[in-house]
Amino acid sequence: MPSLVLAHTRFLLIEQIRTPIGLLAAAFFPAVAMVAFVVPYAGQDAAAATTATSSLMLFGAMSSALIGLGTAVAQDREQPWSPYLRTLPAGPLPRFAGRILSTLAVMLLSVIPVLVMGALFTEAAVTPGRLLLGVGALVVAVVPFMLMGLVVGYVLAFKAAMAVAQLLFFPMAVLGGLLLPPQVLPGFVQVVSPYVPARGAAELIWWAVAGTLPEVVPLVMLAVWTVGMAVAAVWAYRRDEGRRFS
Amino acid sequence: MTVLARAIDVTRRYGEVRALDGVSLDIRAGELVGLLGPNGAGKSTLINLFTGLRRPTSGTVELLGGAPGDPVLRRGIGVTPQETGLPESQRVGEIVSFVAAHFPDHADTAELLARFGLDGLAGRQVGGLSGGQRRRLGVAPAFVGRPWKVFLDEPTTGLDVEGRRALWDGIRAFHEEGGTVLLTSHYLEEVEALAQRVVVVGHGRVLADGTMRAVRGMVGTRRVSFACDRLPELPGVLAAERVDGRADLVVSDPDRLVVELVRSGVAFSGLEIRPATLEEAFLALTASKETVDA
Questions:
Q1: What is the structure's pLDDT at B281?
Q2: What are the chain B neighbours of A245 within 8 Å (beta carbons)?
Q3: Which ipTM score applies to this complex?
Q4: Per-residue pLDDT tens digits for B187-202
Q5: Under a CB-based contact definition with an 8 Å cutoff, are residues B138 and B81 in contact?
Q6: Which of B152, B288, B278, B286 has its CA nearest to residue B206?
Q7: CA-CA-CA-CA torsion sign (A229, A233, A234, A235)
């Protein structure tokens, strides 16, 4: 079974690497934001540069998880190749696991430019241990967004999935304090922010890379979102399976 | 002989539509069965049931003695993907190796590609293949896992004559080695060239199931229609229908029918004779069954 998961992961990775536009899209915006905002305005302050760099890494990772996974799943469902895969002697698990693993791999690739820029052009500094911890936190923090991507991908058609994923993504990223730190957000945004999953994800990552003590409400909300999205993803998957394969 | 695939009184509905209606069918080891029928007849639904993609609304479907939903049983079958859905960015060799990863025992990639006239193309991306090459790559995965039985859905649609012959040779070779084949096609000639047994489906039912010869006899039919007040007793009528004072008959020997019609002395007018298409012949067949039932 693990070799089948590997075969599916490889197959999907090849697809993504040979059509690198998705990869570029996920890496592009945070890299631009890095150059335009973080380097000139926060570059000299080590602590601010470190958290800002990690915020933009989360921004890119979230986009891979939500937009990348959501559109990939929706597109998959429209290709005759996916029913063909169901006739092969394997259950749906290897394909599913392959989808998740290849999304994670692409996500980790797409955050590298921001990381490199943070290291070269700002005072951002992190110990190897904290960097590793940060990557671990990143993987945990994107779980609810991957699940949200699955919901979008299994419920909507490709074009709708693309639009809805982006509509969900940008407000969450802004409200979560990924583009501007929460402290400088307007008052009403500060009230909403702790309840948005992006905020909890960010708190987790800031904690990992910079050691800032996280607030409790955002972390609890992150857990609540993760569970909620997991339930929704299972529902969406079963609904789709019932429509297409029962 | 062992039954490799079996449908027992299978009905499949999609909402209000009855795609299959009480179909029973046995496919035995070593058979090369052609599944013929017009679009929407239920051919694809039947294959989807046998390959585990769909479950019947009622009735039983068995594959190699078990349920087609069981992945382990599906190791024994090969299915053609739809040519239109091959992932564009993958290379030919990568697709074959990927499919092969699902089977404990699988064919050698190079040998398989050669068998389908794709030798030397292992490194080519699907997006760069010609239409004919794509079509052949659409059939090759069915044979990757050294299956006992293959389901080939419209394997030669869009192929030129040469490509079609090459593919037929490949299918025949597989069959001669003991493989079982269920093949769907729009083309009578294709089924004629390959199959020993022909199953005709229409309106979700099995209309005919027999040797090629028997079915060919059915297809060589003519449609004879004329206006008359009273339809006399006529020989060799396969199906009869009366609409608005016109009789519409499907017959195998129209000359004899006309002679008998004249001899009967019944007044008639507006005589028309035209070839019945394959589809019409089978539709007439269903219609006649319904009138017999009623």
A1: 62
A2: 53-54
A3: 0.84
A4: 777 887 888 898 888 8
A5: yes
A6: B286
A7: positive
